[in-house]
Write a structure and sequence with these properties.
Elements (H helix, E strand, L loop, with lengths): L2 H32 L3 H30 L1
Helix pairs in contact: 1-2
């Protein structure tokens, strides 16, 4: 495993761990926010889902630039 591959694997591990931890606490956060507003709880869930795709999109853009 060369240096670039190892760094990519470590970066992927960090992203995966952060999203797993966020997903674990998401129901608790949604219930707490739901006490304030149910719409706001839905917004929190939507932000979590969009954040996953934004990370993948940014990663793809980064990879495309390195390939050029």
């Amino acid at each position: 495993m060369d240096r670039d591959t190892r760094n990519a694997a470590i970066g992927a591990l960090w992203v995966l761990l952060l999203f797993c931890i966020a997903a674990y606490y998401l129901p608790t956060v949604m219930l707490a926010v739901g006490n304030i507003s149910t719409v706001l709880a839905g917004v929190v869930a939507a932000i979590f889902m969009v954040a996953i795709f934004v990370v993948f999109w940014l990663r793809g853009r980064s990879q495309r630039r390195k390939g050029d």
